[in-house]
Design brief:
- The complex is a heterodimer.
- Chain A is α+β, with helices and mostly antiparallel strands.
- Chain A has 2 domains: 153 residues, NADH:ubiquinone oxidoreductase Nqo5 subunit (Beta Polymerase, domain 2); 316 residues, Cytochrome-c3 Hydrogenase, chain B (Orthogonal Bundle).
- In chain A, 37% of the residues lie in helices and 17% in strands.
- Chain A is built from 15 helices and 15 strands.
- In chain A, helix 6 packs antiparallel against helix 7 and helix 6 runs antiparallel to helix 12.
- In chain B, 33% of the residues lie in helices and 13% in strands.
- Chain B starts with a helix and ends in a 7-residue tail after the last helix.
- The relative contact order of chain B is 0.22.
- In chain B, helix 5 links the parallel strand 4 and strand 5.
- The radius of gyration of chain B is 17 Å and the shape is globular.
- In chain B, helix 3 packs across helix 6.
- Chain B has a single domain, classed as Rossmann fold (3-Layer(aba) Sandwich).
- By secondary structure, chain B is α/β, with parallel strands linked by helices.
- Classes of the chains: A alpha+beta, B alpha/beta.
- Chains A and B meet through helix 3, helix 7 and helix 8 of A and helix 1, strand 1, helix 3 and helix 4 of B.
Chain lengths: 519, 172
């Protein structure tokens, strides 16, 4: 059923998920976004593109989630006045996305009063000048500039006894780079301000140099821990563009791989969460289980993390009867091991003491900030794209959505355990119901200007790919969107009032991607 | 406590033998003399630096800390500061936004020091290559002793690269 928005005529976007798009002028664009915000919808992603070659200036796309599915609202931004209405007042998550859109395309969000909500750069750290915009078509991808000194203005907290701890970009463990600025009194955290973008490596520009098919390999390397989710979302978008319909077998195998990625990551996180509470036993046990699972991936699918196994049109792997038997056996064994570990974790006084009430993200803040995925489910919002709106083949399996009200580290541990159990169940059901069919189908032509969307619930949250075809099978624009965009700002709220030594534990309980949001 | 001990006893020891060094992974000839290597070979402190990876290589570095690879039994330890390190384990193409941080981390590491570049991106820029935002391979920014290809390289391959850098033969 088509959603209704005031003064907007929506056209369907063909593909595996329910989606619509429309172009609107600035006033109607802003009003439609406001309508969605008031109706309980949320902002999934925001990006900009250079359309000057078409004579239409620039374009800003707001991708919204409404009850019926996705709505992509497009706004033409004039070339001589590249400004558009700010959405951060409606959706706080838009703030960083708007700053990134300015850094890359040079379009500015303005508040009704005419000022810029936050003029600081986000992805630009001085590697390119303020007046150069990498995603404009006349910007040379290979062009380099002398590095400017990056003088980022952090917000200063003042008062008696307040001091700062700067951390990063190189962290003390095996962690991705980013900068955290803590303002503290004693050991209590008053404020955390994140500075990300250190891993910006020009992924969106790189897509425009690749063919639509070659883009799949790059999509699988936007955030390595979610390679299956990205590869599927990219394939979904390209299949929508070309009208290709993967076989039921290929879809079943995709879901099998996605659930294996979910279990692998949850096992790793549960191990590290124990480790961060000085329970090294938990780390050793969970990482042994994870290693067994990765080795089974290598043996059966040819890659430990399943990179490049999902390709546009289908999959590049298969499971025979012996493989299926091995996987079912593994799932049953893991279920028993997880039960034993859950009992130890839930009854371990030291661990529970560290995790209960620590790093609390309230359901209200989660909703206000538009938090998604695992973190949202642990804060009372049982959203999961596999269950609603559901996409093939999950519509046949009715996945159970785990959730919790407390929003603390302990709740995020509970949700991980519950999701791992459900994921192991789903793997068995998928294997039982695996239909016959070709692994891969031909893609068909990609008309220039055709637009596709992919929407997949990865282990961390929803992974979205918006893709537009260029001439001769090339990529005109690809915007991959990581759930970490929405969830990083929530971490800043979850740590307030906690003690500094609990930060690593809280951070790990969210386990967000730097690479996925730095692009 | 009983359940915890029961689990430990049930699982037992899963550690496997370490791989032998592989001279073909060397990017440049050994720079360190035998006396230094003798010490590094018995107690090696590693600082990991992610210079812009997709985080795939980090997954395998984490996996290297699993009980299957008894790193500390080999005298290898990951440390929290470059000032404590003998060897830098660098992943990723070097993002231009990380170039300065990588250089400073290298400078903060005391001599004598070694650098092992991890993954296809660390070896040649990988799928990201060189661009306005990426400097490509690690050797474009700091000297690299050993480069381990793979996307991502397995934990055993990473361990082999580390052991190659210190010319250590510790099979078994």
């Amino acid at each position: 059923m088509t959603p209704t928005l005031p003064n907007i005529v929506l056209a369907p976007v063909s593909g595996a998920v329910p989606a619509w798009r429309a172009e609107a002028d600035a006033a109607h664009w802003r009003a439609a976004c406001e309508h969605v915000a008031q109706a309980g919808g949320r902002l999934a992603a925001l990006w900009a593109s250079d359309e000057r070659a078409r004579g239409t200036g620039y374009r800003v796309c707001a991708l919204l989630v409404v009850h019926e599915g996705l709505v992509c609202l497009e706004l033409r931004v004039p070339q001589d006045a590249p400004v558009y209405p700010d959405l951060a007042a409606l959706f706080p998550a838009a703030g960083r996305m708007q700053r990134a859109a300015f850094d890359l395309v040079g379009v500015r969000a303005l508040r009704p009063e005419g000022d810029v909500p936050d003029p600081r750069p986000w992805l630009r750290h001085g590697a390119w000048p303020e007046d150069a915009f990498p995603l404009r078509r006349d910007f040379e991808a290979a062009g380099t500039f002398p590095t400017e000194l990056d003088r980022y203005r952090f917000v200063k907290v003042e008062g008696e006894g307040v001091h700062e701890i700067p951390v990063g970009p190189v962290h003390a463990g095996t962690i991705e780079p980013g900068h955290f600025r803590f303002s503290i009194v004693g050991e209590k955290l008053l404020r955390l301000e994140e500075r990300l973008g250190y891993k910006h490596k020009g992924i969106e520009k790189r897509f425009t140099a690749l063919s639509l098919e070659d883009g799949a390999r790059l999509a699988g390397r936007i955030s390595g821990d979610s390679t299956v989710a990205y590869a599927w979302a990219y394939a979904m978008a390209l299949e929508g563009i070309t009208g290709a319909q993967p076989s039921a077998r290929a879809l079943g195998l995709r879901a099998l791989l996605l659930e294996r990625e979910r279990v692998a990551n949850h096992l790793g996180d549960l191990g590290y969460l124990g480790n961060d509470c000085a329970l090294a036993f938990g780390f050793a046990q969970f990482w042994r289980m994870k290693e067994d699972l990765l080795r089974a991936n290598q043996a059966l699918f040819g890659h430990r993390y399943l990179m490049d196994r999902i390709v546009p049109g289908g999959v590049r792997c298969d499971v025979d009867a012996a493989g299926a038997k091995r996987l079912v056996g593994e799932a049953l064994r893991l279920k028993d091991e997880l039960r034993a570990m859950r009992s130890i974790y839930y009854n371990h006084a030291g661990l529970q003491d560290r995790c209960i009430t620590t790093g609390r993200l309230t359901p209200r803040n989660a909703a206000r900030l538009g938090v998604v995925g695992l973190a949202a489910r642990a804060s009372g919002h049982a959203m999961d794209a596999r269950a609603h709106p559901g996409f093939a083949p999950y519509d046949r399996f009715s996945p159970k959505v785990a959730s919790h009200r407390n929003g603390d580290v302990a709740a995020r541990i509970v949700v991980r355990f519950e999701e791992a159990f459900e994921s192991l169940r789903l793997q068995r059901v998928i294997l039982e119901q695996l239909a016959d069919g070709p692994r891969q189908v031909p893609l068909g032509a990609a008309p220039e200007g055709a637009f596709g969307l992919g929407w997949v619930e990865g282990w961390r949250g929803e992974v979205i790919v918006a893709l537009e075809a260029g001439a001769d099978g090339r990529t005109r624009r690809c915007h991959p969107h990581d759930p970490s965009w929405q969830n990083w700002p929530a971490l800043e709220h979850a740590v307030i009032g906690n003690i500094v030594p609990d930060f690593p534990l809280i951070n790990k309980s969210f386990n967000l991607s730097y690479s996925g949001q730095d692009l | 406590m009983y359940r915890l001990l029961k689990q430990i006893a049930k699982v037992g020891i899963v550690t496997e033998a370490a791989p032998a060094p592989d001279a073909s992974l060397r990017a440049i000839a050994q720079r360190l003399d035998d006396v230094v290597l003798k010490h590094f070979g018995r107690a090696l402190a590693i600082r990991h630096v992610d210079a812009g990876s997709c985080n795939g290589c980090e997954l395998e570095i984490h996996a290297l800390n699993s009980p299957y690879y008894n790193l500390e039994g080999l005298g290898i330890k990951f440390v929290a500061s470059p000032r404590h390190a003998d060897l830098l384990l660098v992943t990723g193409p070097v993002a231009r936004n990380m170039e300065e941080a990588l250089r400073r981390t290298y400078d903060a590491t005391p001599e004598p020091k070694l650098v092992v570049a991890i993954g296809d991106c660390g070896c040649d820029g990988g799928v990201f290559g060189e661009s306005y935002a990426s400097r490509g391979r690690v050797a474009n920014v700091i000297p690299v002793d050993v480069a381990v290809p793979g996307c991502p390289p397995s934990p055993a391959a990473i361990l082999q690269g580390i052991l190659t850098a210190v010319d250590a033969c510790r099979a078994g």
